[in-house]
Amino acid sequence: MNTLIAVDDGLTNGNYNWADVWFLVAAIAAVLATVAYLVNPADVPNTTTPPSRYYRYTHWAAALVAFAIASIAFAWFLL
User: Fold this and answer.
1) 39 Cβ contact list (under 8 Å, min separation 6)
2) Mean pLDDT over all residues of the chain?
3) Considering the entire predicted model, what is its pTM?
4) What percent of the chain has pLDDT over 90?
């Protein structure tokens, strides 16, 4: 069976297994990594502006991307 068909079958029919759960965890981690990376205050040209309150999450972007990749690999292993 094709891997993508197996994932789509579980998500569309409500027949979830652990692989589907890990794919969803990977998607959430990827979205959080994107948000954490985009709020980087270093891109603001005005240096007198105080850093955003979300600045403390920027350094977690790389860790979230690594977690998303590891989650995808683990989900493929479970399939």
Assistant:
1) 52, 54, 55, 57, 58
2) 75
3) 0.67
4) 22
Instruction: Report the distance separating Cα 2 and Cα 30, nearest Å.
Output: 23
Long-range contacts of 70-76 (CB under 8 A, 24+ apart): 71/22, 71/23, 71/25, 71/26, 71/29, 72/22, 72/23, 72/26, 74/22, 75/7, 75/18, 75/19, 75/20, 75/22, 75/23, 75/26, 76/3, 76/19
Q: What are phi and psi of 50, to 5 degrees?
A: -65, 150
- Identify the CA nearest to 37 among candidates 22, 55, 17: 55
Q: What band does 79 get if pLDDT is binned at 50, 70 and 90?
A: confident
Mean pLDDT on 7-27? 76
